[in-house]
Design brief:
38% of the residues lie in helices and 15% in strands. By secondary structure, it is α/β, with parallel strands linked by helices. The chain folds into 2 domains: 138 residues, Rossmann fold (3-Layer(aba) Sandwich); 195 residues, Rossmann fold (3-Layer(aba) Sandwich), CATH 3.40.50. It has a 6-stranded parallel beta sheet. Helix 1 runs parallel beside helix 10 and helix 7 packs across helix 8. The model has no long low-confidence stretch (mean pLDDT 95).
């Protein structure tokens, strides 16, 4: 703990990726901004992640291109060579990020506590945040605000969205929703295929949402895997009539446009993937589907009650221990773990989201 009494003039944050983690970091940054409004904040971030956050009030973004190899480090050093930061918050344990931290001039470099400072992060910092017992990733990040001597409150997000991005989403969704139904978004694909639920499950979830009065929209990135999964979900469902047809926006949105779609949605169904956490930042309830990572650590932060998880049973089978007994952050292994998630449980959880949030709407 630094016991900081006065706000520093400037502060640098290093968190390059991934989308979900960057969303968690936004809550921490905006917590700092509310208490130190005069402090200038610079954020060293990855290119894709920056495309989601550009325009965020009071933050200067410096993009680090991790695909550029040594040139990426040289460019970062060149960009910051005449700068001197009072504090660096080194919030990523990957060695790549630690090497990038060498290019950031700062008097104080704060990293994770010994237990979480993997890949020798401790060699690149001169202060540490306090140890925490089994924190969610977002709470772990809030430990950096605590290390600065700041109060930590419930996370609040003000995500940068322009009128044009929100208008685009509104027009795109209304074009195929003449009846003006509430919107349910399925973001079916994670970055790794093994973290995806199966097309049959998603198609039955879509049919259930339709039966409950929702217009179903599928969103995702432009990869072949995501497009094929979306097509498989649509082809398996019986929602082919014009009013009930699933709207396919896979590969058609920028990250900001996707965020705008998620903001207009009434609920989201997704595995452990960036859009689930994006939805949290705009306060759209998420039905999170988990099997490989502990949802208490990486689940949708505001909506743990709507997680459908096969993680605990997978850990019990693989380690003969409970999820609380294995090291925090332990991943369950296996390509078919998501198949353990029951379609019935997902439907029940969707019904609970509707009951808790939209009983008057439907």
């Amino acid at each position: 703990m630094l016991g900081q009494l006065s706000a520093p003039k400037n502060l640098c944050l290093l968190r390059l990726s991934a989308i979900g983690d960057v969303c968690h970091a936004v809550a921490m940054v905006q917590n700092i901004q509310r208490q130190w409004p005069e402090t200038k904040i610079t954020w060293v971030i990855g290119k894709i992640e920056a495309s989601l956050l550009l325009g965020m009030e009071g933050v200067e973004f410096v993009i680090f291109d991790k695909k550029a190899g040594l040139k990426g480090y040289r460019d970062l050093r060149e960009q910051l060579k005449d700068r001197q930061f009072d504090i660096l918050l080194h919030m990523q344990v990957a060695l790549r990020a630690s090497l990038a931290s060498l290019c950031i001039p700062a008097k104080v470099k704060i990293g994770f506590d010994n237990q979480r400072a993997k890949e020798a992060q401790g060699l690149f910092t001169n202060k540490k945040i306090a140890a925490q017992a089994q924190p969610h990733v977002l709470d772990g990040f809030m430990g950096f605000a605590e290390a600065l001597g700041l109060m930590v409150t419930e996370p609040l997000w003000h995500m940068p969205l322009t009128d044009s991005e929100q208008l685009w989403a509104s027009e795109k969704l209304s074009a195929e929703n003449a009846a003006g139904k509430p919107i349910a978004v399925i973001c079916p694909a994670a970055s790794k295929a093994e973290r995806n639920w199966h097309a049959e499950g998603y198609s039955q979830a879509a049919e259930h949402l339709n039966a409950r009065g929702f217009k179903v929209v599928i969103c995702g990135g432009p990869t072949t895997m995501e497009k094929l999964l979306a097509e498989a979900i649509i082809s398996r469902s019986n929602l082919s009539q014009s009013g009930n047809k699933i709207q396919n926006l896979v590969g058609q949105t920028s990250l900001k446009q996707l965020l705008a779609v998620l903001k207009l949605a009434h609920l989201v169904v997704a595995p452990d993937t960036g859009p689930a956490h994006m939805a949290v930042t705009v306060e759209t309830p998420v039905v999170g589907l988990y099997a490989h990572s502990n949802p208490k650590r990486t689940g949708p932060y505001l909506y743990p009650q709507y997680v459908v998880s096969a993680y605990e049973s997978a850990i019990q089978r693989q380690y003969k221990k409970t999820a609380e007994q294995v090291p925090w952050g332990t991943r369950a292994k296996g390509k078919d773990l998501m198949m353990q998630i029951s379609i019935t449980d997902v439907k029940r959880t969707i019904d609970r989201v509707i009951h808790d949030n939209y009983s008057e709407l439907l």
